[in-house]
User: Fold this.
Amino acid sequence: MSGKVHTAQRHDSALKHVTGQALYIDDMPEPPGTLHGALVLSRVACGKLVRLDTAFAASMPGVVAVLGPQDIPGRNDIAAIGKNEPLFATDRIEFAGQTLAMVVAESLDTARAAAEKVVVEIEAEEAVLDIETALARESYVQAPATIVRGDPETVLASAPHRITAEFSVGGQEHFYLEGQIAFALPGEDGDITVHSSTQHPTEVQHVCARLLDCDFNRVTVVVRRLGGGFGGKESNASWVAAAAAVAASHTGRPVKLRLPREVDMLTTGKRHGFDYRYTVGFDDDGRVLALDAVLAADAGWSLDMTPGVVTRALTHTDNAYWIPHFRAVGYACRTNKQSNTAFRGFGGPQGVVVMEDALDRIALHLGRDPVEVRALNFYAEGRDETPYGQTVDENHLERCWAEVKAGGELERRRAEIDAFNATNPVLKRGLGLFPLKFGISFNLPHMNQAGALVHVYTDGSIRLNHGGTEMGQGLFIKVAQVVAEVFKVDVERIRPSATSTAEVPNTSPTAASTGSDLNGWAAWDAANTIRSRMVAFAAEHFGVAEADIEFADGNVRIARPGSNQVLSFGELAKLCWLGRVSLSATGYYKTPKIHWDPVAMHGRPFFYFSFGAAMAEVAIDTLTGESRVLRADLVQDCGESLNPAIDLGQIEGAFVQGQGWLTCEELWWDAKGRLRTAGPSTYKIPGSRDVPPVFNVRLLDHAPSREATIFRSKAVGEPPLMLATAVWTALKDAIGAAGNGRVPVRLDAPATPERVLAAVEQVRRETRTAAP
Amino acid sequence: MADNVRFTLNDRPVEIVGVPPMTTLLDWLRDHRGLRGTKEGCAEGDCGACTVVLEREGRRDAVNSCIVLLGQLDGQSVRTVEGLRGADGGPHLVQTAMAEADATQCGFCTPGFVMSAVAYASSGGTADPEAIHEALAGNLCRCTGYRPIVEAMTRIAGLAVEPPPAPSLEARTGSVAFDGAFFAPRSLEELLALRSAHPDALLLAGGTDLGLLASRERKPPKAVIHLAHVPELAAISATADKITIGAAVTYEAAAPTLIETFPALRAYLSRLGSRQIRNMGTIGGNIGTASPIGDMPPVLLALEASLTLVSKRGTREVLLDDFFLDYRKTALAPDEIILNLSMPRLWEGETFHCDKVSKRRDQDISTVAGAYRVRIRNGKIEDARLAFGGMAATPRRAPAAEAALLKDGFAAAIAAIETDFTPLDDWRGSAAYRLRIAANLLRRLELRLAEPGRVLEVEAL
Assistant:
C-alpha cells in the first residue's frame, strides 16, 4: 500500500506544478463575456472624500460599469469580525490604498486605464502613521487586553535585579507569489459561484452574501489551490471576492478581479509591527521572578483580525519560560495604514521575541551564558503553568534544546567564533539559540471544528472533500494519506477535490496550523463511517464476524475457517452498492478539551503545544552593517509526522520566511503614509543565496503527541517560523562582539544593514563611554 | 518595410498578426496563445515566475517574459514550460528532478524555476552552489526556503543536454518596422536615420527598464527603435590600451571581457540584476536611462569610461564624467545614440575595486554603490577616481574625497566624503546611513589596499 501515514509523500500536485498544468484561478478559461475589474485607490492616508467623479471613466469605450458604494445591494461592509469596514469608502479615508470604486470593463487594460481616469478629491487630514503617536493619542481599534498572574509590581520592586528595555519589530508583507484574485460567475435566480484564492471559503461566502444581500445558500465558493497564502488570504481574499461578486451581480456577466502586485501590496494588510517596553526582575542566578511588558501592535486602520493577533502575542510572551509573576498588556494601535491581518504565526512571533530580548540582557547583566540562562527558566515540573492558566505538559523543551546544542556543536563553535571575533575587527560572527513552545488551536474555541465529505465509488476509487484549502502546504496529500490509511488502499486511489462551500459547509479558515489536525480527523471520521458500513455489510454477506474482516493493501480479506477470501477494495465497494449500502459519508471533528475566557484572558486555549529549538550563526560587517546567516540547526516537534517530506518543507520554508521578517524585509511608508515598498523591486524577500549554506533540519524523533491528534501527529505550519528568532539573537551576539561584549544590544527588526550598523555604532559608543 | 513579427515558439513557427508588437510576451502567451503555465507574479521582472527560455546562438537563456516585447522576439526561438519534454515524451528531467526533490509547494513560482533550471543545466551549469544561486537569483519562492530547489539543481547539473535546435526561421537581412511603430534597423546608418526621423521614439535595447512601461504601467511606448540588431552596437573589441563594448551588448555577453580586464567586477556583476536581467539588459541601457542608482555608472566613472555618441551629424567622444547632467538627464542629443563605451585598461600600479550595499545581496538595487580606481607607486597614491551611486541625483565622483586622498590619505578622504554628497532619505536607506556607508567603503578600500587577500566581506566567509 502506497501513501501510508508517517511516510514521505510528494505533494499531490507536484508534477502539475513543474509542468505548468496546475490551474490557478487566473489560468481558468474565461467564458465568453467575461469582464475584468480594476480598483480605484486613495492616494491619501487620512481625510474626507469630497468628490468621486466616475463619469468620464464610465464613458470610455469598453467600460461596462464603474461601481461605488451605491452599487452594493447589501451592506457595504467587508469586516471579518468587526464592523464598518467598507468595500468602497463613502466618506472617511483611512489609509493610502483604500478602495474607492471599481471599474469593470471588457479587457483588463481598459479597466486599468479607466480606473486612472476616475477623478478623486480628498480633503487631507493629518494621519497617524506610527505606534508611538497612536499610543500617545490612545488611538486603538480595541480596548487594551491584559494577561496577568500574581503580583508583578511588588515582585519587580523587590527583585534583586531589574532591567527595563524597549525595542520594536516591523511588519511583513505576505508576498504570496499568486496575487489576490477572484472570479465570480453569475447563475440563475441570483446564484453566484465564486472562485477565490482564499484560505477561508466560508468567510468569502458570508461576505459576498452580506454585500449582495442574499442567503448564504446562493453563494458557492470554490477553491482548488492557492499560489501561497500565509494568512494573507484570510480576510483579504474576502473583499476581493466580494468586489468581483458585486460586479458579476451588477452586470450579469462573469467578472474576474486580479490585483496587480502593487495594488495588492497597497490595499492588503500585513503582519503587525510591534513596539515593546518591558521590565523584568530576576535573581542572582538569572531566574526570572517577574515580567511586566507592554506590547503595542500596529493594527492599521481597522480591526480586521487584530484581536486574535494580540491575544496570541500575549499568550506567547512567556514562550518557553516559567514566569511566576506576569503581566503583559497588548495595545492594538489604530494607524492610517493598511489594516494588518493574519500572517503565519499570528502574533506568536511578535510575542516570543520579548523574553528572548530579556534573557540576553539578564545573562549579560549577570555575566552568565545566555544559553544556560534560557534553560534555567524553561517550563518544568512544578513550574509548568502558563500565565493564562494552561498547564505545559508533554514538555519537549529540554530534549529539543539538548539536540540542537549537540547537533550544532555549540561548545566548539562558540569557542571558534570567539576566537574569530578576537582577531577580526571588521567582521564579527555571532551565535544565537532559541527554544520554542507554540500553542496549537484557534484561540476562539468555536473555530476548532471541521467537516469532510467522502465518497467511495463502485470501482473502489475515492473522492475526498474537506473544508481545508490547499495553498502549497501539502494539506491535500496529508488528508488523503489519512483516508488511504482508513481504507488501506493506495493513496493514488484517493482523489482530493476542490474545497467548496457546497460540499462542506460552515468551515473554519485553513489557518493557525490546524489544517491537518482538524480536516484530518474529519476525513478520518467520514472514511471510518463508510468503512464501518462496509465491514458490517461484509460480515453479514459472508457470514463472518466483523473482526474477521481485514482491510489491507488495497484488498479486503474475509477470514473464514477453511476458505479465506480476498476481494479487492473495489469489489467490496461494488458488492456494498448491490447490497444497497451508502458509500458516501460526512465526517466531523471538534477539538476536545479547549476553553477560553476572553475577558479574564484565562483558560486552556490550546489543545497541545508544539516545541522546537534553533541555533543560528551569523556574520556581520561592522563597516556596512551587511549580514549573512552562515548556519542554522533546527529541531522541530511534529509529533509522529503524517508526512515527513511535507513537514520538512514546512519547517525550512517557515524558517526562511521568519528570517526574511527579521532581516531583509522592510516595509517603508513615506511621510504622507504611502507605502513605497510595494513590489519585489523595493520589498526584498529572501532569495536562494540568503538561505543558510549549512542548514540542518530535523524532526524530533519518537515524539508521538500525547493528546489524541490525528495519528499522533502535530501541526507544523507556523511554529518553525519562530525558530528564525535565533537569527535575530545571533545578530545581537555579533553586534555585541563589535564592542567589548558587555554592552546590551538593542536591535530593532528588520535588521537591515542600516539597523545593524546603527546598533554596532551604538555598542561601540557605549563601550567607549564605559571604558575607564 | 511593413512586416509581422515572426518567431519560433516551442519548436513551431508563429507569426504575430493583429497583436501590437509592444505586447509583452507574457500577455501574449497567456491571453492570446492560451499557454498559462507561465505566470505573472510581479510584472516588473523581479520575481521570475514568468521566466521562459530564449534559444539562441547555441545557448539557452532565461528571460523574464513579462518585460520582453513581442517585437524583440523577431527571429528568435522561445520555449515555455509547456514546450519541455523528456526523451520519452513525458516530463523533462528537470521537471522530474524538481518534483522528486519536493521542490514545489504552492507551485506558482515553479514553472519559472523550471525554466531557469533548464537554462542552467543545458548551459553546462555545475553543482557549485555559488553558480546555482547566481542562476536562481531572479526567481523568488515564498514557500520552500529554496533548499530543495537548489538540491534539484544540483541533481541535474552536468547532465548532458542537447544544444537547442536552430530557429526554423530565416534570418532577416534588412530593417523592418512592425505596425509602423516598432522599428528594428539592421545597420547603423538606418538607425541614425530613424533616430533623426522619430525623435520621440524610445530606444529599446534589452527592455529591462522600458519593458515595465508595457507590463507594470500598462502604457506601452508609442514607438520604439530596437537596437539589438545593429552590428556596430553589438561589437566588443579589445586593444592594448582599452576595451570597447557596444551599447547594445548584454551584460552576460560583456561579462567575460569586463571580468578579464577588471577582475573585481566578477562578484559585482553577479549581483547586478539577475541572470534573466543580465541576459537582456545592456550597459548602454544602464547609462542611457541615467538612473541615480544604476549599478554600472559608478564603475564606469571610476574606470574613466568614455562614450562614443553618434548622430547623422557626426560622431563625438564624451567622457562619462560629462554625460550625466542631472536627475535622469544626460548629454545625449535627441538625434544621437550611444554607439559604445570604452574603458582604458589599468595602468601599472593601478588597482580597481567596487562595492555594492543593498538590503538583499542578490537582485537588489544598491543603497550605495562605490567604485574606485587608485594608482599607487612607491607607496604613494598618485591618482584616484572614486565614484558613487545612490549618493546624489546622478552617479558621481567624489572630488573632495579624491583630492583629500591624494593629499592627506584615507583618513582625510573619509572625512571629506561628507562634503561631496547630500544624499536623500528613502526606503533603501537614510541620508545619514548613505554618507556613513560611503565613508566606510573608503575604509574598506584602505584595508583592502593595505592587506590584499584579507577577508573583508561576509559573503567571503
Notes: Chain B has a mean pLDDT of 95. Chain B touches chain A through 84 residues (CB under 8 Å).
